Amino acid sequence: MKQYEAVIKVMEGNGNYATLGYLYQxxxxxxxxxxxxxxxxxxxxxxxxxxxxxxxxxxxxWGLKSQQDAVLEKLAIDNKSSDEKxxxxxxxxxxxxxxxxxxxxxxxxxxxxxxxxxxxLSNPLSNYSTLARFYTFTYEHVVRRxxxxxxxxxxxxxxxxxxxxxxxxxNIQNSLLKFLELQDFNTNFTVVAPxxxxxxxxxxxxxxxxxxxxxxxxxxxxxxxxxxxxxVFELHQIQQGFQF
Length: 244
Description:
It contains nine helices and ten strands. By secondary structure, the chain is α+β, with helices and mostly antiparallel strands. The chain has two domains: 3-78, Arc Repressor Mutant, subunit A; 83-228, no CATH class.
């Protein structure tokens, strides 16, 4: 079996699409395919960019070219899907990436209660996040606001390590207001958004009201997040002592 055929086989078994992270976990295990290279992950990245067989759905997410129309319809992001459906897909996709990263980094992960049944690709987000309930780590009025943040990573002591807000089109200022309420905690804040929104982010974080958190909030665009997601999976596979 050729290497690109192994990638196709894994995608076929996963609904005809997959993240790079998923491919890293499964492609090298396909029987009958040899990877005589010291850089198999780079080979997988190269293979999925072959437009004869694959197409890019979103940063870090690839599908089978032969099933393109069916895949886009299944994910509700084809031309017939509403703007609302496409917006929901974008939001939950990047939520899912953040949850998977947090899990692999050893954190407990939480998504808001209203998002738990929304799909991350083919499964509900609740299948990936590790916490059913948000930790009550401080006063109830602060917790009530904090648990609406799109993704939270908790450390082993039940305190928040990182908070993430995904802002595809909505007002970035709303996310910053949530972060502002948590300024007294030693936690990381990140806005995840399209690269085109960075200027808007920089303008909003520059407001005097956000001065207490100005140097604590990072902006990460979708491409950088997807690269980080695949790199975390790559490192995880290496740490598992996978032999090539």
